[in-house]
Amino acid sequence: MAENRQVLIASLPTGALASSDFEMRSAPMPEAADGEVLCRTVALTIGAGQRAGLQGSASYAGAPEAGRLMGGSGVAEVVESRADSIPTGSLVSAPTGWQAFSTHAARHVHLLDAGTDPATALGVLGTNGLTAYFGLLEVGRPQPGNTVVVSAAAGSVGHIVGQIAKIHGCRVVGIAGADDKCRMLVDELGFDDAVSYKDPEFRSKFKDATPDRIDVYFDNTGGPVLESALFRMAQGGRIACCGVVSQYDTSTPGPGPRGVPGLLVNNRVRMEGFLVFDFADRYEQARRDMSQWVADGSLKPKVTEFHGLEEAPQAFVELLAGRTVGTTVVTI
Amino acid sequence: MAENRQVLIASLPTGALASSDFEMRSAPMPEAADGEVLCRTVALTIGAGQRAGLQGSASYAGAPEAGRLMGGSGVAEVVESRADSIPTGSLVSAPTGWQAFSTHAARHVHLLDAGTDPATALGVLGTNGLTAYFGLLEVGRPQPGNTVVVSAAAGSVGHIVGQIAKIHGCRVVGIAGADDKCRMLVDELGFDDAVSYKDPEFRSKFKDATPDRIDVYFDNTGGPVLESALFRMAQGGRIACCGVVSQYDTSTPGPGPRGVPGLLVNNRVRMEGFLVFDFADRYEQARRDMSQWVADGSLKPKVTEFHGLEEAPQAFVELLAGRTVGTTVVTI
Q1: pLDDT reported for residue B59
Q2: What's the CA gap between A106 and A87, in Å, rounded?
Q3: CA–CA separation, A120 vs A43, rounded Å?
């Protein structure tokens, strides 16, 4: 009988992640119990937030351990169903983890329309897209004409945030870590401006890009980029805190941003953290909106694809090093 | 003719404030023009936020200069009125500055009821009380049963915040800088608990005092105390950022608090700065509520009084050193 292939956490990283922090192994094929489905993974998505999940108790995702299967979300084909609600042959999204086969209770998988593009399901219609949608619209609350700034703007969440802000009539400025990413944001995705935080003249360029200051800052990074944005906030500005990618891939998180809380007081700024799961009862509306925007061309999802389960660790390393764009997907 | 006495800023402090940063001088008696009133200062209030006003552009209060009159709010008697709306002999609150006599356009003074206690007008019914009221109720939004924590809890704003939170059915914990202040908060003002941040066991005592974590944290301090509170916030908690007293009396503000933005994300915490002036159209309602609470004994304003204009600099030094309680008032 076929064996299952899995990627395990070989060791908890103490500094920058390396692909050697993972190892492949063969495992017995899992078997579906009554009420469960056996799934063959078609594609996985990897997000920077998963790096936080390797820092033990530091994250909302729970404590990880060396020797355990690496967790993650995927799109899968149901190869055997023992649940009435999910036919064999269905396409589903599921918390597959990094493995070729997995079993799940029927209530833990989400049926997808036949023919759904896995990258779309994992990206713009998955957690990344939903995070962008609710974080921007419900926490940031942009108004037409507002200046919206997003960090990690070429990333899985950021590139969607900027485009939704454009759809809502805002002036949109992206912050990314490379000039080619900045060009892509402006030339391909319609951002009004984009600045690389690695540019030696970042401060002055960022100031020039935000002449009316910042009404909404969508923060994926924390750290020095957050600090720079704090000093550019407009009165009554909102900061949606989504993630802390600047602090994930290190064992020594830096100090907090200067200006907290002084600048929040002076400019009456609201800074609010959120997790997308809190909006779960409204996912369907968000998916309808975003499907419509994708269909009419106003929202262009970007994907960086890797091929083969054994490439997943390297894909994760590339993602954290800032060498991917949009949603990072591993097809299997 | 009588001369005016004034306290000038002699030099902008570069570290901890000293009374030698001020100087007394005599000045010509001011004269009221048409539409103005000539006021004799009865009492001044001093707030920690005024220290920020001596740091140049760092504050919302505008840039100060050596050689200028020290600004501030006072209660005054109108000794000559050339404005129909303000009778001679009225008691008013006004931005008198630190001087014995001042002139103001009628629209810049606020008529007080005859017989109003100046300390009450400057404290619980003045900017301090209004700041506590709107910051707690509108930014913090406490619910009955919530745990509310306030820093600089024995200070002009903090001691009112805690009592309003008690009136709203919350469990209230104060953070102050001395054991006798903590005892006063619990024994006299009805706080449920109070902890000194100077206690070597502050961390464990603070944890014990907040067994259900913190729903609302009213921050007057910033710095390490804010950082400690961030690590104790409950899911969905709110932080009302009112001031940064830990950073005022120094020329080298520290780094921002660790945990920003990571802890805001993990616990979905909202952190929001405010200035009381944004609520000006609702001051009267707040004053009615607080007058009622003072009358029925549920809100007990505390005042530390100094006597004589020449004592104002030392009163300011004492305030910043944490040696005053409640509203600091200088009677003249």
Answers
A1: 46
A2: 10
A3: 11
Contact between B48 and B66 (Cβ < 8 Å):
no
Q: Which pTM value belongs to this model?
A: 0.91
- Closest residue by Cα to residue A264 from A221, A289, A225, A233: A233
Please calculate the CA angle B98-B104-B105 and round it to the nearest 5 degrees: 160
Check if the beta carbon of residue A47 is closer than 8 Å to that of residue A65: no
In DSSP notation, B73-95 reads EEEEEEEEE-STTS-TT-EEEE-
Which of 280-309 (B) contact A at CB < 8 A?
A: none
Q: Does B56 touch chain A (CB under 8 A)?
A: no
Q: Any idea what the Cα angle at residue A247 is, between residues A214 and A128, rounded to 5°?
A: 65
Query: Can you tell me the mean pLDDT for B94-122?
Result: 95
Q: How many beta-carbon pairs under 8 angstroms link A with B?
A: 114
End-to-end, the C-alpha distance of chain B in Å comes to: 19
Whether B211 and B189 have beta carbons less than 8 Å apart is answered as no
Question: Where would I find the H helices in chain A?
Answer: 49-52, 118-122, 127-134, 158-167, 179-187, 202-209, 223-230, 245-248, 262-266, 283-295, 312-320
Complete domains list, chain B, with CATH? 4-123+301-331 (3.90.180.10), 127-277 (3.40.50.720)
Order of all β-strands in the sheet with A171-176: A193-196, A171-176, A147-151, A214-219, A233-241, A270-273, B270-273, B233-241, B214-219, B147-151, B171-176, B193-196
ipTM, two decimals, is 0.88
B116/A contact by beta carbon, under 8 A: no
* SS3 state of residue B325: coil
**pLDDT tens-digit readout, A161-199:** 999 999 999 999 999 999 999 999 999 999 999 999 999
> Rounded distance, CA A189 to CA A298, Å?
9
Considering only CB atoms, A265 lies closest to which of B241, B257, B258, namely B241
Digit-coded pLDDT (tens) for B136-181: 999 999 999 999 999 999 999 999 999 999 999 999 999 999 999 9
- Nearest Cα to Cα of residue B55 among A328, A13, A262: A262
Burial code (b: 16+ CB inside 10 Å, e: under 16) for B192-203 equals bbbbbbeeeebe
Q: How far is A284 from chain B (nearest CA, A)?
A: 22
Give the C-alpha separation, A133 to A155, whole Å. Answer: 14
